[in-house]
């Protein structure tokens, strides 16, 4: 898999890319990730990549030329399955979307910045738009890393135990059941007896009950959707 991330502030991506499961997946040759600085593609003599918006609103907007030039360059070299823009008004990114993206070969993620990007970029080039929540960030670099991490960890062999990713919250539409580790007793608090019983059928039933109960309590929207679908 190859992921190309286009950013106005590429330095924000350095740490997460070099200290995570993503880095280990790169070292294993499971994924290629390239970060592209928009300023390398501007034709402005002052190296500008933004300008004031039409209509008199405050703030600055990323101009279309460097974005078109960068994406045109990338798409001339290979075919991309999706060209993603991280935007507050995009579709909510969730586990289902991460599952779909993890099956693709080539993906571009364009990070928004300032007030956003010229609408003509969105109209002509973007195939998917994602938000990671109902709030506004300074730029799209953090959402880009959230998306990258979420899909890379699903690539076979990216994490040590493949079954771990499949049992995470949201994979089956529910929140994950409580998890425990050793010691069995800590400060007077005990691991549920059922988890130490060795009876895998009873353990699985307990986990399902706990998962349903937690989802109903904390995410009624997910619980109602699960009950409807199943």
Describe the overall structure.
There is one protein chain. It contains 9 helices and 9 strands. With 230 residues, the chain is α/β, with parallel strands linked by helices. It has 2 domains: 151 residues, Alpha/beta knot (3-Layer(aba) Sandwich), CATH 3.40.1280; 63 residues, tRNA(m1g37)methyltransferase, domain 2 (Trp Operon Repressor, Chain A). Strands 2-1-6-5-7 form a 5-stranded parallel β-sheet, with helices on both faces. It has a two-stranded antiparallel sheet with strand order 3-4. A hairpin with a 2-residue loop joins strand 8 and strand 9. Helix 8 crosses helix 9. The longest helix has 19 residues. It is elongated and about 70 Å long. 25% of the residues are buried.
């Amino acid at each position: 898999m190859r992921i190309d991330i286009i950013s106005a502030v590429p330095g924000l991506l350095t740490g997460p890319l070099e200290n995570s499961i993503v880095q280990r997946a790169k070292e294993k040759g499971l994924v290629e990730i390239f970060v592209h600085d928009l300023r390398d593609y501007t034709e402005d003599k002052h190296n500008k990549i933004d300008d004031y918006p039409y209509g008199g609103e405050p703030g600055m907007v990323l101009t279309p030329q460097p974005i078109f030039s960068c994406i045109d360059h990338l798409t001339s070299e290979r075919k991309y399955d999706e060209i993603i823009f991280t935007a507050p008004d995009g579709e909510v990114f969730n586990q289902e979307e991460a599952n779909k993206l993890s099956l693709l070969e080539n993906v571009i993620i364009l990070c928004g910045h300032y007030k956003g990007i010229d609408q003509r970029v969105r109209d002509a080039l973007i195939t998917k738009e994602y938000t990671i929540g109902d709030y506004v960030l300074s730029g799209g670099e953090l959402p880009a890393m959230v998306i990258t991490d979420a899909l890379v960890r699903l690539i076979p062999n990216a994490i040590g135990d493949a079954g771990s990713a499949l049992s995470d919250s949201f994979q089956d539409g529910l929140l994950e059941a409580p998890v425990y580790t050793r010691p069995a007793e800590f400060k007077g608090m005990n691991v549920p007896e059922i988890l130490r019983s060795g009876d895998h059928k009873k353990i699985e039933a307990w986990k399902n009950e706990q998962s349903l109960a937690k989802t109903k309590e904390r995410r009624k929207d997910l619980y109602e959707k699960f009950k409807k679908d199943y």
